Structure formats: C-alpha cells, structure tokens
Amino acid sequence: MTHILLNNVCVDFPIYNSATGRSLKNHLMKAVTGGLMGSNEQGHIVVKALYNICLDLKEGDRIGVLGHNGAGKSTLLRVISGVYEPTGGSILVKGKVNSLIDLSLGMDSEATGIENIFLRGALLGLNRRWLSAKVKEIVDFAGLGNFIEMPLRTYSTGMQMRLAFSIATLQQPEILVMDEWLTVGDADFQEKAQQRLQEIIKKTSILVIATHSPELVQQVCNRMIRLERGALITT
Amino acid sequence: MFKLFKSGWRDIFAALKGYELAGVLGWQDIRQRYRRSSLGPFWLTVSMGVLIGALGLIFGTLFKSPMKEFLPFLTIGLILWTLITTVLNEGCTGFTAAEAMIKQISLPLFTHILRVLWRNLIIFAHNLIIFPLVLLVFWLPLPTTALLAIVGFMLLMLNLSWMALLLGVICTRYRDVPQIIVNLLQVFFYLTPIIWTPKLLPQRASILLLYTNPFFHLIEIVRAPLLGTLPSALNWQVGILLAIAGWAFTILFYGRFRSRISYWL
C-alpha cells in the first residue's frame, strides 16, 4: 500500500548570506514571486518555501502540481522525495520514491558509457549484478551501439540524454516524482521514450508531477493542486 | 536523547548497509582525478616517495639521526599524517561537495562521508607501498608486532570517521571552519612527532606536547608496532576512549542536525 500524507507541512529556508538590513527585509517581504520572507527566532532571514501544506495521496492518484516560478513546486517534490525534512508539520511516505528529475546527475563525462551505466545505477540504488544483466537492454534502447565504449564527452547532448533516460527508466517505481514532462532525443527516440514513460506511469502507484501546463494535467492527472507563494490554494 | 541517537544511528546504519554506493563513488573520484594519466594514482606513491626522500635527507642530517632508524619512522608517520589531514579536510567539504546529489536524491547522508573515507583509504594503500620499499633498502625485517598495527589502524579509522562526520556537519553550516581546520592541522603537523622523534624532546616538554595531543596517540598505535615496539597503555586508552566518546557525541549531534544539512547547502 503506497500512501503519501502531508500534514501542515512547512518548509523554511534559512538564508545566511543575504544582506540583512531591516529595510531590505521589509522590502523583500513585498516581493511578488518566490516564497514569503520573514525572519526566524535567531534573526536570520528565512524564505517560507512551503506553508501549511496538507495533502493526502493514495494509490491510483496522479496529481499535477501547478504554480508560478518560485511557488514551491520543486520544494514540494523534494519534500516528498525525502530530500528536505519539513521544518514544521509532518510527512508520511509509504513506498519507494523515484524521481525523474535531473537524469544525468552523477554522470562523468570522462567515463565511458558502460562506466556511467554502473555509476548512475549505483546512485539509483540498483543492484550491480542485476544491472550487469540489463546493460545490453539499456544500450539497445538508447541506440548507442559501439559508442557505449566511448567516453561520455564524445556523445552529443541528445545521446547523453538518451543514455540517461534509458538508465533512469529501467526500474518500475512505486511513487514517481517528475518535474515537467520529459522529452528526450530525436523524433524516433522520442516515440520510444514516450511509450516507455507512459507504461511506467501506468504502472506507478502514485504520480506527482510539477508543471506549468494545464493541458498536461488534463492528459495524465486525475487530481490537481495549485501552489501560490508556498501555500496551497486549490485541492 | 534516545530519539536523537536513534535518528543519527539510523542514517549511519543505512549508509553502512549501502556501502557499495560509497565504494563506487569513491573509486570514481580516484578514476576521475587520474584519468588519461599513464601512472594513474601511482603518482601519489611517487610524490610521497619524493617528499619522504627529501624530508628524510634534510631532517635526518639536521637531527643527526641514523637514517636506518629515522627513515622508516618518517615514512610511516608521514603516510599516516597524510591520511589524517586529507580525511579531515575533505570531511569538512564532504557534504558541500555533494550538494547537487544531496539536493536531488534522498540518500543516507553518511554515505558522502563514507565516500571520503573510502577514497582516502585507496590513496593510503597506494602510499603504503613505500614503507616496505624503505625496509627493503635498509634490509630491515618487518617486525612481528606489525600485526598489531592492523588493530591500531582500525582504531585510527574509527576515530577519523567520527571526526570527519562531525566536521562535515559543522562546516556545512559555518563555511569558515574548513579554513580554520586547514590551519589547525598545519600546526599539529609540527606539534606531532612526525618529522622529529619524541626522543629529541626534553622530559617536561614531552608530557605537555605529546600526551595532550590526540594525534600523537592515534599515530603511535599504528606506527610503533610497525617499527617493532609496542604502543604504551596510554596510547591505547586514549585511542579507545576517544573513539567511544567521539562517536557517542557525534551520533547525538548528527541525529540533531542531520535533517538540517540539506537546508544549509
């Protein structure tokens, strides 16, 4: 049973290197985008990236998170992935969270394609032996052929993304977190990639996707929330 | 208090369980550093050898110590000291260097410290090659007490790991601390008998300089058995107590501030 439950979640970022002038602080508090600013007990400036978020996601939920830049979408995704522990309120996540954000994180441009498969695989928590058996499948899917033995820096950007995508989508996540829809590679690959992505999403128990596009929400989601300056405005 | 301990320990335990990841990342660091170089990490061995040769010549002559005694002493001391300083200095930046990773995926954070430890163990292994070479040059046998050095080394690593973790947390919040640590370690390099032998010290100074210096004890539990003598009971006691007290404090401290690390980055 996968389940995500956020109860009055707040996330305050302390900012230690801002110019801490009082007037500036007041000025900043009137800023239009970004989270609300204030100061904490120690007098440090804090950005309230999320404020009193309550959210209950159950199996089958595909939720779209809409909002302006700086509304707190990415922060919310990171709270769900466990990167940030809420500074207020509580969160409960049952099920393994995978994110399809920054697919090439940890890749090394000097290392060969094969080496990068294992590097990325380790970061994704994939078992080395299992991964060894999957190498051929990854290479075939990415359509890299003999290039897989070459250093990553010899790849075009598209090829790098294809490899990254092929590794990242190897396992079926229980809870999938995405920042915008993924489009990778040229026309041919895109079709293959979309198919695989659709398949993964279909089998995923819970999907959380941050986006600017209401159309996307209509296509893939069955729920929607809107964030504005760190607060939830519609459920 | 128990809750803090549990929260700190849970992360450390999870990182230890997933040691494979730290291993892969640590190796990757070494590979990245020496990619396309023909000698690779053995450059470390070469430069350490050159340093030991040069220092040995200068200070051996300066202190009028017989090379046969001084050079093995200097070799093992310098190799250990290099390990200690790099682990502590890189421990300071363990979390800040992994910022991109920490902010993107949820891993046990101690993994990043394990990565530092593992990377430096690999480097240490490369440097260690010089020691048997030095013994060979002077046709000295490896003493039977050398086995005890393994125990001493494990105790040293146990101590270095809590220090690296503690420094990593503090330095993520206070970015001036790494610079302070660099300077402090520089001072300790001269305060600790590495390029000079304790015999050179007058009696009273030695009590003050040696016994209050934790690094002296930590080096001694590895170096003495490798040179054919036994570390003193005090050396062991300090090493063990430091490990216990250090870890106990660090786990609590880590339990308290672990969740703040990603916010401080």
Structure description:
The complex is a heterodimer of chains A (235) and B (265). Chain A folds into two domains: 3-95 and 210-234, Rossmann fold; 113-204, no CATH class. Chain A is 34% helix and 29% strand. Chain A has helices at residues 22-29, 73-81, 113-123, 128-142, 157-168, 187-203, 214-220, and strands at 3-15, 36-39, 45-58, 62-67, 88-94, 97-99, 175-179, 206-210, 223-228, 231-234. The longest helix of chain A is centred in the last third of the chain and has 17 residues, at 187-203. Chain A is globular. Chain B is mainly alpha-helical. Chain B has one domain. Chain B is 79% helix and 0% strand. Chain B contains 14 helices and no strands. Chain B has helices at 2-17, 19-34, 42-62, 67-92, 94-97, 99-104, 110-128, 130-137, 146-173, 177-191, 203-211, 214-226, 233-257, 261-264. The two termini of chain B are 26 Å apart. The chains are: A alpha/beta (235), B mainly alpha (265). The interface between A and B is medium-sized, with 25 and 21 residues.
Q: What is Rg of chain B?
A: 19 Å
Q: Tell me the number of helical segments of chain B per DSSP (H or I, 4 or more residues long).
A: 14
**In which range does the helix fraction of chain B lie?**
over 70%
Summed up, the helix count of chain A is 7
Order of helices and strands of chain A: EHEEEHEEHHHEHEHEE
Residue runs with pLDDT of under 50 for 5 or more positions of chain A? none
Q: Got a strand count of chain B?
A: 0
CATH architecture of the largest domain in chain A: 3-Layer(aba) Sandwich
β-strand percent of chain A reads 25-35%
SSE pattern of chain B, N- to C-terminal? HHHHHHHHHHHHHH
* Poorly predicted ranges of chain B: none
- Radius of gyration from the alpha-carbon trace of chain A, in angstroms: 20 Å
User: Mean pLDDT across all residues of chain B, rounded?
Assistant: 93
Please tell me the total number of domains of chain B: 1
Number of strands of chain A: 10
Shape of chain B: globular
Shape of chain A: globular
Largest interface: A-B, 25 and 21 residues
The end-to-end distance of chain B, rounded to whole angstroms, is 26 Å
Helix content estimate of chain A: 25-40%
* Category by helix and strand content of chain A: alpha/beta
